[in-house]
Amino acid sequence: MATTTATATTCFFNDCVNPVLPGSWKCAYHRRRARCLVQECTNQVHARNLCVRHGGQKTCQYEGCCMNARIRGFCYKHGGKDNRRRCKVEGCTRNAAYDHKCIAHGGGRRCTADGCSAHVRKQGLCGRHYRQTVADLDVKAVLSSPCSATSSASFLDALFQDLLDDEAKESTVVKAEPDFVHNSLFILTQRGHMLTVCYFKDCHQPVQPGSWKCIYHRRRTRCLVEECTNQVYARNLCVRHGGQKSCCVQGCCRNARQAGFCYRHSGDDSRRRCSFAGCVRKAILGGKCISHGGAKMCTIEGCTSHVRKKGLCCRHYRLWAADEEKNKANPGANGLVKANPAAIMKAQATRSIASSDEDQSSSDDDDMMDLIDASFIDQVFYDVVKDEVRAWSGVPPQC
Prior knowledge:
Blueprint: H1 2-6, H2 52-56, H3 127-144, H4 153-171, H5 180-191, H6 239-243, H7 263-266, H8 314-329, H9 341-364, H10 374-393
Helix pairs in contact: 3-5, 4-5, 8-9, 9-10
């Protein structure tokens, strides 16, 4: 498995095409999922380190039945009493979907579009009207999004062909909305713009051909609020615009977590607290808050500040970042391409000590200044940095 996953670019799990995380064989969504122990199985673990297919869920005890066990070790078919509601129409054995009736006898909800008698498939609409609504939103998103100034005939051709295909499929069942495809194409042709990066907020991935979304967001929908680039959370809205309910307490704008209240007003905060006596802060590391030693310390020797980024505190990270900017402006000046921030900072501390010792000795004897060459200090600093980088990268130091 190590050889197959080492060079994988997409997630290991079945039917997942998301890109893997750096140094991993899983995507961000599956990063905490475990795989089935059966060799060459790409399913997730359900129970006992096995997927459902390979025994992670018990099967029916009835001889010859391979269905999953539901009631007292038996499936629904062999488990005796079946608590599922049946259609109330005489002679019908189907499951009731709505109002004690199956879909065939009128138990399914109807599409909310005027004059449509088809059953609801998604968001209160039938399949045809839902696809048309999504297509309308796609057109509006392209028109209201930041676009490039050059037109693309291939993009318009691909979009036009997709719309024609949808219309052709629906024409076998019911006639499509008049001029919907051509009106959409006319709007896009008038604007003549196309997206080069994904439409959604903070996503810089390239769009798929003939689309305004990247491969990761290809099945995501956008918030209905105009000019909003967030994903839908619920009710066609993002969290910011009401997709998630807020706390019931008046004046509180936090998201509801339990019984309609946020963590602060629910009265039942299950988050871990600091183990230090009398402290009510949230535990960060080792059962302690930051004030009582629950955070990592800066890796620079003698520094007692907490880690903020790349193993360094704020002050040392800013110093390291400033040096990185100088190296970018003058690449190859010191022979280093990539280095551990902590190693660089340690080398800088060594250089500072060497410089201070030199200043002290020069104050005792002014004549020694003529014998000291500044390039010697630079060479010492370069040698220290080179050894630190080699030690960090696992390369043995040169003798």
